[in-house]
Amino acid sequence: MLGERDSLRDTGRESSINTGRVLLAGLLVTALMVGLVARYYSLQITNYEQFLTESDRNRVRLEPIPPTRGLIMDRKGRLLATNKPSHRLSIVIERADDIDRLLDRLGELIVIELEDLARFESRRHRRRPYEPVPLKLQLTDTEQAIIAVNRHDLPGVTIEAQLTRYYPHGDLLSHVVGYVGRINEREAARIDAANYSGTLHIGKVGLERRYEAILHGQVGYQNVEANAHGRVLRVLDKQPPKDGAILRLHLDLDLQRAAYDALGEQRGAVVAMDPRTGGVLALVSNPGFDSNLFVNGISSRDYAALRDSPDTPLLNRAVQGQYPPGSTVKPMLGLAGLKLGLVTPESTVPDPGWYRIPGDSRRYRDWILRIRGTGHAPEVDLKMAIAESCDVYYYDLARRMGIDRLAQSLKPYGFGEKTGIDITSEKAGILPNREWKRGYLGQPWYPGETLSAGIGQGYMLATPVQLAQATMVLANRGTSRVPSLVRRIDNQPVGFLLRKPLTASEKDWSAVIAGMMDVVHSRRGTARAIGKGASYTIAGKTGTSQVIGIAQDAVYDEDAIAERHRNHGLFVAFAPVDDPEIVVAVLAENGGGSSAAYPVARKVMDAWFGGIADG
Amino acid sequence: MADYERSLPGSERDFSRRKTVLQFLHIDAYLLIPLLALVAGGLVVLYSASNEHVDTVMRQVRNFVIGFIVMLAAAQIGIETYRRWAVVFYAMGLMLLVAVPFFGVGAKGAQRWLDLSVIRFQPSEIMKLAMPLMIAWWFSRYTIPPRPLPLIGSLLLVALPAGLIVIQPDLGTSLLVAASGLFVIFMAGISWLYIGGAVALFVASAWPAWLFLLKDYQKQRILTLLDPESDKLGAGWNIIQSKTAIGSGGWNGKGWLEGTQSHLDFLPESQTDFIIAVLAEEFGLQGVLALLGVYLLLVLRGFWIGLHAQSAFGRLLAGAITLTFFVYIFVNMGMVAGILPVVGVPLPLISFGGTSVVTLMLGFGVLMAISTERRIIVQ
């Protein structure tokens, strides 16, 4: 059958058909080959540049090198904020055989908080398997040792060292230096993402925030070759970062500590300044807190404790706390009275212990009435009014001056506006006048309120740093400077900012300052207690600021009022009187009176003149 | 007969000049030399593609040794023997394909492998050679060009194994196996009317096939081909990375062992299906052209053997084997360069893998057997 068919074949025709088809196939193959070559030509020659760029972009990755944060030092070069290597325990997932078992084992060896575990779990899925995932930050030496000893039993566990911000004097300087913390979403939206690409922390408050740009520095970069899994194989080139600058402060660590210790348990604030420069020598707000708690994320328990404490340790009383300045404004108003010709150094006011606005039955009491049952003296002059803090004298002066002139005369001292100190969150206080009251309260100004303003009560509010600045104007006899914390940035001096000076005749200045000197150095001065044994002259002024209004003629009984409702004690001073080197403002919150404040100022000044100034 | 007589004098001079061992061993030097060049070049590329893994290269050397032995053995067998055993070979392949769904081993969601404990292999690979043998045998029994009835018979013979492979599922291999049979039909000289009709039918069936036949991952491959950027990290990744590797090679290439795409693991399957991208990246368009040149030599020699084969069976078989070989090249290089969908086709004799090497060398052995047949008769 088969053979028969074969024999019928026309082999010649078959062969020519085959030749035709082979040629056709050859053509087809050639055409497709040309197509392939065209495609490879298009990829490799026509679009070569594009694909070369693509392949470089694949393999070369730009990695940020974060700059080292600038240090903060006091005037003598002692570190207030530094970077210290800290060790954290991380787990490289791909090297651990069984994560759950590993975590259990670690939990047996060292304390691992639930918060750490939760953070680990959430981070774990965002990292690549060869990247270490942090589990516990800031290992103690003991913990490090425990991990080291058990290393063989903990596959995948690594201990990484990195630089972490550290504040050697956490509580002491928390309100000056502030702290850094993890960059949050709001900050991330604000900052230059490129410059912060390798940075985890940012200044949150205080100098850390105010000088963030300077302290942070400029990020560096390195080009690294990485494989498809992202593992870095080698560094191709590198542009080193520019580290943050060093901040050198006017502040003196010893004086700061002296002020802090002088306050002791007393809530309050101390601001010490050099009137010749405006440099802040000490700035204390008590209580403080440990700045270090915030650096790597404060635990919610610790934060709640700080936030909910009745002592409000997070409040920087020195710049954020606003208190009625009380009698501390009396020298300034006295000067205003002299300048306006309303009083002379010799003119007197009769003082029965109370004052009455003509045509008004209300009696405005002098503080001394409660103690002596009478006034300071039958006739009180300016010097005595300052030295003994006579309210009646100032009721009279304020009434004659009127609120608008009164407010106007206090303006050059910086009340009612921020001093411009180089720290965050400063408050402006309030310097009230008719306009202010109408604007804020929608009410007319009452004559009685002018009397309150005359003794620094009522609506007027000032921060301790404003009081220090105002006192500096008195010490300098008119020259006003912006309080500044930073003295040098990387050895470049920071210029002093001058404010518009206050002008008055030498005679007027001397009259007021003589009164202030009597506050401390006269027999009946309100702060005579600190005049004893002082090796230098002090000019000061006490103040008491009322926390709650005392009803007319009500008996003022300090003990009956809850501690939180006790008056604030205030004291401002400068020394030496002839050539002032230091200005101090003290606030003793609920201290009862100025006696809680002036000993603090004396201790600060003693410390300053006792060797710190020369050091 | 006239054709052979005309070509006789030149051929005879060839033989007389090279009366060598090669001829005694039935080896065609014009196939052998390009093959050796491919093997050498392939090992060089593989060394780089495997990240300088000597072990992989040695395993491939072993594959080539086996491949050459198989080729040598296949070349010794007379062409008439192939013709006689074609049916048995085909039937065996068919049986194994039927067995796959019942005894097969799965990999990547498809059952394609048979594990015979000694050797694990894909029966579909057998079909790559059994198919053209079978169809060539079929037409050797009829007149050429085929009449309608034998033609329908041949189409059924093509469809049966192709269908069995489709359901594994392995659409790519199925198409290649079917192609190897269809090439025989093409070489047998069927009318252009049929070819045109088939093409029309194929185009017409594309839409229903898309709706009902293709699996999701197959559709995905086609969509990815059209727009690889649509799925950059998923299915498009391979194509984007392979195109990047090829393109970044330029004219000169980045140099041997210097290809970043492959050495830094951006290129997937760099030792197997995507190895051409490694070659293109490291040796540039020069390397690609050199490779295509060697392939072209093999293809031209295959056609030459087909042209000068003694029997219709030999002519059909040689043409089909050669075309199939070229289709592997075209499909592989086309898919890596992003002009064809990704199907699992290795680059002949360059990609790592034993099965592919052995199957291809078997094909070249058969080609040598065909070329030898002619010479023996001439002598």
Automatic annotation (TrEMBL), chain A:
Pathway: Cell wall biogenesis; peptidoglycan biosynthesis. The chain crosses the membrane at residues 21-41. Binds one Zn(2+) ion per subunit. GO terms for molecular function: penicillin binding; peptidoglycan L,D-transpeptidase activity; serine-type D-Ala-D-Ala carboxypeptidase activity; zinc ion binding. Keywords: Carboxypeptidase, Cell inner membrane, Cell membrane, Cell shape, Cell wall biogenesis/degradation, Hydrolase, Membrane, Metal-binding, Peptidoglycan synthesis, Protease, Transmembrane, Transmembrane helix, Zinc. It comes from the Bacteria. It catalyses: Preferential cleavage: (Ac)2-L-Lys-D-Ala-|-D-Ala. Also transpeptidation of peptidyl-alanyl moieties that are N-acyl substituents of D-alanine. It is an enzyme of class 3 (hydrolase). InterPro entries: Beta-lactam/transpept (IPR050515), Beta-lactam/transpept-like (IPR012338), PBP_dimer (IPR005311), PBP_dimer_sf (IPR036138), PCN-bd_Tpept (IPR001460), Penicillin-binding_protein_2 (IPR017790). It is a single-pass membrane protein. GO terms for biological process: cell wall organization; peptidoglycan biosynthetic process; proteolysis; regulation of cell shape. The active site is at 327 (acyl-ester intermediate). Belongs to the transpeptidase family. MrdA subfamily. This is Peptidoglycan D,D-transpeptidase MrdA. The gene is mrdA.
From TrEMBL, chain B:
Peptidoglycan polymerase that is essential for cell wall elongation. Pfam families: FTSW_RODA_SPOVE. Keywords: Cell inner membrane, Cell membrane, Cell shape, Cell wall biogenesis/degradation, Glycosyltransferase, Membrane, Peptidoglycan synthesis, Transferase, Transmembrane, Transmembrane helix. It is found in: Cell inner membrane; Membrane. One of its GO terms (biological process) is cell wall organization. Belongs to the SEDS family. MrdB/RodA subfamily. It comes from Luminiphilus syltensis NOR5-1B. Its EC number is 2.4.99.28. The gene is mrdB. GO terms for cellular component: cell division site; plasma membrane. The keyword Transcription does not apply. One of its GO terms (molecular function) is lipid-linked peptidoglycan transporter activity. InterPro entries: FtsW/RodA, RodA/MrdB. The chain crosses the membrane at residues 29-49, 61-79, 85-105, 150-167, 174-207, 283-304, 316-343, 349-370. It is a multi-pass membrane protein. It catalyses: [GlcNAc-(1->4)-Mur2Ac(oyl-L-Ala-gamma-D-Glu-L-Lys-D-Ala-D-Ala)](n)-di-trans,octa-cis-undecaprenyl diphosphate + beta-D-GlcNAc-(1->4)-Mur2Ac(oyl-L-Ala-gamma-D-Glu-L-Lys-D-Ala-D-Ala)-di-trans,octa-cis-undecaprenyl diphosphate = [GlcNAc-(1->4)-Mur2Ac(oyl-L-Ala-gamma-D-Glu-L-Lys-D-Ala-D-Ala)](n+1)-di-trans,octa-cis-undecaprenyl diphosphate + di-trans,octa-cis-undecaprenyl diphosphate + H(+). This is Peptidoglycan glycosyltransferase MrdB. Its main location: membrane. Pathway: Cell wall biogenesis; peptidoglycan biosynthesis. PANTHER family: CELL CYCLE PROTEIN, PEPTIDOGLYCAN GLYCOSYLTRANSFERASE MRDB. It is an enzyme of class 2 (transferase).
